[in-house]
Amino acid sequence: MTTTLQTIAKGAITGLTMILAAGGATAQEAESASATETGPSGLIADFNDCFENNASALVPQADLIRLCVSAHAKSMDRGVVRSEGAYRQTENGLIFVLRMQNSSPDTIITGYSVILKHQEAEQPQIFNLTPVSILPGAIVDVPLGGLTYVPAADDIGADRFQFGVDGVRGITLALK
Fold it and tell me: Global pTM?
């Protein structure tokens, strides 16, 4: 009997979270409610269950992915991420290109933050990237536009800026 009541309560909380997300509460409030229900598991099976159990015509697929990633991704050791970056001039202006490598053998990177600080900028700029999907062993190039500080073309050398990757989160695959 207790198990049935717990299952019903868990379903009600999940349903309420999805209603809040679709009905006007901020996505962050809905994500917080979902993630604090039981804490993130970090497992792909739980992400898949979340996605399958909450699929609805009322909830856009991209929002459901974001909610389920938020509910189930766990913090990862930054040591599994190798990164390098450089400013690049494009036809649309200057961007910062980040190259990310996921060296984890079994965990998909689902989110991370990048902190970029040029020596001439007053404040560092923080980019929060989620949801993303960087598979184990994969290398991706990520263009970061919308820079708050745009250095001059002759001021973009590697000795003129610092960057770091922080807050890495992921979901572990059940490799068989």
Answer: 0.70
